[in-house]
Amino acid sequence: MRSVTLERDIMMHPAGSCMVSFGNTRVICTATIENDVPPFLKESGKGWLTAEYGMLPGRTGGGRKRRDGIKKDGRSTEIQRLIGRSLRAAVDLTRLGPVTVFIDCDVFQADGGTRTASITGAWVALYDALAKLAEQQGQAGPEYYIKGQVAAVSVGIVNGQVVCDLDYEHDSGACVDMNVVKCGDNLVEVQGTGEQGTFSREELNQLLDAADRGIGEIYRIQRESLGI
Amino acid sequence: MRSVTLERDIMMHPAGSCMVSFGNTRVICTATIENDVPPFLKESGKGWLTAEYGMLPGRTGGGRKRRDGIKKDGRSTEIQRLIGRSLRAAVDLTRLGPVTVFIDCDVFQADGGTRTASITGAWVALYDALAKLAEQQGQAGPEYYIKGQVAAVSVGIVNGQVVCDLDYEHDSGACVDMNVVKCGDNLVEVQGTGEQGTFSREELNQLLDAADRGIGEIYRIQRESLGI
Amino acid sequence: MRSVTLERDIMMHPAGSCMVSFGNTRVICTATIENDVPPFLKESGKGWLTAEYGMLPGRTGGGRKRRDGIKKDGRSTEIQRLIGRSLRAAVDLTRLGPVTVFIDCDVFQADGGTRTASITGAWVALYDALAKLAEQQGQAGPEYYIKGQVAAVSVGIVNGQVVCDLDYEHDSGACVDMNVVKCGDNLVEVQGTGEQGTFSREELNQLLDAADRGIGEIYRIQRESLGI
Amino acid sequence: MRSVTLERDIMMHPAGSCMVSFGNTRVICTATIENDVPPFLKESGKGWLTAEYGMLPGRTGGGRKRRDGIKKDGRSTEIQRLIGRSLRAAVDLTRLGPVTVFIDCDVFQADGGTRTASITGAWVALYDALAKLAEQQGQAGPEYYIKGQVAAVSVGIVNGQVVCDLDYEHDSGACVDMNVVKCGDNLVEVQGTGEQGTFSREELNQLLDAADRGIGEIYRIQRESLGI
Amino acid sequence: MRSVTLERDIMMHPAGSCMVSFGNTRVICTATIENDVPPFLKESGKGWLTAEYGMLPGRTGGGRKRRDGIKKDGRSTEIQRLIGRSLRAAVDLTRLGPVTVFIDCDVFQADGGTRTASITGAWVALYDALAKLAEQQGQAGPEYYIKGQVAAVSVGIVNGQVVCDLDYEHDSGACVDMNVVKCGDNLVEVQGTGEQGTFSREELNQLLDAADRGIGEIYRIQRESLGI
Amino acid sequence: MRSVTLERDIMMHPAGSCMVSFGNTRVICTATIENDVPPFLKESGKGWLTAEYGMLPGRTGGGRKRRDGIKKDGRSTEIQRLIGRSLRAAVDLTRLGPVTVFIDCDVFQADGGTRTASITGAWVALYDALAKLAEQQGQAGPEYYIKGQVAAVSVGIVNGQVVCDLDYEHDSGACVDMNVVKCGDNLVEVQGTGEQGTFSREELNQLLDAADRGIGEIYRIQRESLGI
After folding, report:
1. ipTM score
2. Which domains does chain C have, with CATH numbers?
């Protein structure tokens, strides 16, 4: 697994912000809180959390990438929906009150695993933002809102070997690729895909075992970064 | 599991077409073949398969739905990417030659499971289209191009029970929801999500077992419909 | 004239639905009713009727057609405006109360005359939807809202002969092409166009005579289908 | 009928241009010629003619109108298609050679009948543009390309009376409204619509008679303006 | 400097309108007043002024220009923002009351300097529109709202010479190009750009001197046109 | 003037990159080089330079900002055009050969002066990118392509005082606001605007003097950062 680092409070204005690195993959994650909820939650007393995923044009080798224009491409849309679902699993929306947490993940540098790095960094930014919300709402701390620790890692089978946290080169060569998101000891999302080849139940189990180990280590780094 | 039916050759023009029903969910699936490939495959000799997912405005209760306008919503984009990947797993693209297979899945009536019904029906339309291609290209039959039988089913945990092929009511109440796509005996896609709750490895295994049984039955119905 | 058939109640959810066939041209027509009116009718007490026209990508020979994307093309926009005007002529909007009737016509298979088949089928779906509205509003029956029976047919001059209900081949070869919509004994819309040639008043009269005969026969088939 | 005037050569650059007035309705019409044809005519040797319809934001009373933004509304699209078809009827496309004539009609002031004024003025601009083309191509004059004189007028039934060339007030009160385009003695387009009421064959004939008289007078004014 | 002319009241409906010519550059300027303000001024009691810039497709030589489609290009956006800022400098927004003045500048013919002609003509249309507003609001005259006379001119360095009011040919050959807008004796906007070369402080001063002389002459023509 | 800092080589992939800070305003600037030119320069042998300006959603206080969607707003478009023109003044495009330099400026944190910080940082990224191009093309160094050093600063009149490098608070209170871009000792762009008040020639001269002093200091910091 590549080196995972988290640098908090990189921006002045968002309630929470961090730069997360999984090797050369680096993502700017922010959490901001607004006093409004989407129409379908008006009058419900519940809060909401939503995510957006962007990318800087100089993030990769092989030439500058075009900015998202008239519509996000399918891949970006999938990723931001995944980030949103994963972090909603971490939060007790009924305790938030009528606020919306916006998670923004902007890829600064891309080398595979941007979605799992985003989820991992966004949870740290979310923790800091909820600490500020707790102060405002007179609660003891962010734990009041948080149902569990959330982190994610990619796993895959490359040249017949199970690999954890695939970089771009691994990812391109993987015959099976799976993103695993956990909340505490349980799973939140499992997305395995075998476009270059199919996979058996046994291989699926090996991949899940590797993800368990990887996420355990990432959990530790998140807690260390937050001092909890 | 709900009753699954397949009605072939419902349209004159596409090389393959069928109406697939999973209970009250009904999807019009077509496969058409064009003598062209996307730019990234020019000169490669390989073929391609891509899918689009649409929905008729009168497909559901609770009022007419708006047509997809300026951009497909995130959910539709995810589904059509899933259908495309799943069926590409079934086809040997290097044997197709420089043609593109277009899969179109248009939801006629929606009651949960439209993506799994779409994949299941699209494989039947694809089989018929490849039979025509085989004739044109002087091959023995569609098996020349087909790497395996593909079908899909949704499984979930509803009120603590594992349920196979969730209708809309089940789907709304499920705390875990998983779509499983198989090709032959292996897995192609596993997409499990627990927005209303997380799930353990043991529950994941129970869900996969239920999907195995469901897809086995659907495989039988596909073969019966095709007379193979 | 080609064989005209009408199959009612093909979908569970819309208040009225039918599959209309004019020869190989087949259109899915639905009518749904919502408890709202457009802004310009708020506070007026009147209702509204509007129509949308779509097409399935596998509807024709000569290859798959692209889905309507960022904007409807001019032809589709014209057709849905024509369908809307034609059916509004059939309904007493002041009696509807503050509801909107949405007509959706989705071309399942295209072989000329999709707009006239759409209007013809949509009137049948509308009749069934208004029967349900009558029940809800405590009126005797759909006749309370309906000002007249509406049907449409295309007529044209092909190789010097007047033809009624042109299929695609006729349509391509016609030097004059006219769509006629009637409500009861009167005309609602006459749209004659002579891009490949102009036409005289006498020819116009022959076309209108042919349309009268064709619509008379279609009226009979509509009534038979509805049992009225 | 309102006073019809035509002022030619109002702009320096287009091959033909005129300001046409039907009473207070005023339209800037231009015809420009480019040495290219649309893809479907490449290699055919034939030319093409196409039209666009725009509107200045200060054209009407009742407040400024918004500019056409992301898409032309349905009405504008219908009108520009009508203008294009009507003027294509006037031109022998096989004699043009591989050029495209662009007709632009921009409404300067609107008081009913903008589409019929546009067609009438555009024919004059077209005549002047084809005179220049004839010079370039060494033909005797614009008559080499022109199949007939084209003009248009609206007719309607207002308070039970047949009216020719409806202004905005008439148009709003008309129970039947018909646009008639002629080329020489024949009809090119007849578009009658009875949204506020239906109409009989006899009424249709009265409307066509009125249009014949009106277009006869407009033909005279066009010829006078061109000095032919 | 080219001949500058102003023709007022060219349209019936806008509160003020004029055709402004700077040589062969001609722009249709209108000012309309609506009883509403943008959201950020609601409840403020202040009014607003905004501008839009459009172009007719036949405005230039070198072929027909495409209409602005899905988005205004960067140049048009810049110009309309400049027009708006320049004329807001001329108006006491707190005296207008809760109304919005819409300025529309549509280029009829383009030969360099369309933005400066637009500002110059728009001020005249604005003056006439504010005269009507004064009548409605019971004020003595347009001077009640107007803080100063506004006009604009372009200046540049062409072949080492300072030129005032550049036509298209000058503009293409200028190594420095500057647009100067004045309100009374003061400057409102100075936009100097040296893409084809840089410029010294001394050259800047020479350009500003030339603009002073040019705007002085244009002020005289504006007042003459308005009879003030 | 606020503290100006430049941190180079913050990203792996672009040929040049830096984070520029003007006080709390921070912008990520990158320069990438592609072996292609826009259509209007094909066959010319010349190169091109173009710029894009983006903003991270968490860049300001007062709540999260929405991402640029279907179209860039007018302000962003103006800024990126200004950045592009300013840096083109620094480069000898005829010496580049057929390559395009893409400048991307993404605002990380905004507190006034983002456009002048962008130009200043982009020149440093450009210098580094041209150093790499020089190596590839066998030239002595980046000076081969560079016509001059480019930097920018904003100046304004706040409460009657001339201020250099306005932060957001100053900017909101300025009655005159001017952006000055220099290349060597000369001016490239002067954009002065007085929406909240007009300004005299004398004030203009004071503003330009202040800009001269500020840019002199920024030039020094750029050279120090590059070690030249």
Report:
1. 0.93
2. 4-226 (3.30.230.70)
